[in-house]
TrEMBL record:
Domain called NAD(P)-binding: residue spans: 7-200
Family matches, as PANTHER family: FLAVIN REDUCTASE (NADPH)
Domain of life (superkingdom): Bacteria
Protein known as: Putative NADH-flavin reductase
One of the Pfam families matching this protein, by short name: NAD_binding_10
Gene3D superfamilies given in the database record: NAD(P)-binding Rossmann-like Domain
GO MF annotation list: biliverdin reductase [NAD(P)H] activity; riboflavin reductase (NADPH) activity
InterPro entries linked: NAD(P)-bd_dom, NAD(P)-bd_dom_sf, Polyketide_Oxido-like
Length: 210
């Protein structure tokens, strides 16, 4: 499959690029600075430089591909619109080029609801929501935009991210949170996204991890 990866130089994005190549996909890694891509030159890897996340800048990197995977995000809690803006630009570029499959990373911490135990739902997540208000607001706006679109989208919501190895031992739940799912490695998030890529049943669903 030919896939385009946004946020390719980030923690999850780097794992996405590496694992996608391992699975035999052809990868277009979208970056602002090619020197920051921590992936060895490999057959099947193409680097697309986009200084800004606009639809016009992304369309050449999307045209002719089968899917777009976004691992955009920020560390910290500064005011931001990178997730929302990146998703909107990617979707506009996808519509213009006829690409329909989209997977984006969000965060389960931004959503309380079914699947959470009472302690997590009524204490942990409200505290986390205040600490990461700006980042979570950006992800919520992104999800609203994605869910309103007609593309074949899947939203992946991991809990707290770690730099641990890929284990394949994570749990997933569809349209509900994962009970006791407090942390997961970025490598496992990448594994989950690439697995869902080939699962039509995940289209138009939110998949939480834990």
């Amino acid at each position: 499959m030919k896939i385009t990866i946004l946020g390719a130089t980030g923690g999850t994005g780097t794992h996405l690029v590496r694992q996608a190549l391992e699975r035999g996909h052809s990868v277009t890694a979208v970056v602002r600075d090619p020197s920051r891509l921590d992936v060895e030159p490999t057959p099947g890897l193409e680097i697309a430089v986009a200084r800004e996340l606009t639809a016009a800048a992304l369309e050449p990197a999307v045209t002719g591909r089968d899917a777009v995977l976004s691992a955009l995000g920020i560390r910290g809690n500064a005011p931001t619109d990178v997730c929302e803006h990146g998703a909107r630009s990617a979707m506009e570029a996808m519509h213009a080029s006829g690409v329909s499959r989209l997977l984006v990373v969000s965060a389960s911490g931004a959503y309380s609801g079914p699947g959470d135990d009472p302690f997590t739902r009524w204490l942990v997540k409200p505290i986390l929501g205040r600490a990461l208000k700006n980042a979570f607001d950006d992800m919520r706006r992104m999800e609203t935009a994605v869910r309103a679109d007609t593309l074949d989208w899947t939203i992946v919501r991991p809990p707290r991210l770690t730099d641990g190895p890929r284990t394949g031992r994570y749990r997933t739940r569809t349209n509900r949170n994962v009970l006791g799912g407090f942390r997961v490695s970025r490598a496992d998030v990448a594994d989950c996204m690439l697995t869902l890529l080939d699962r039509p049943a995940s289209i138009h669903t939110v998949v939480s991890m834990g």
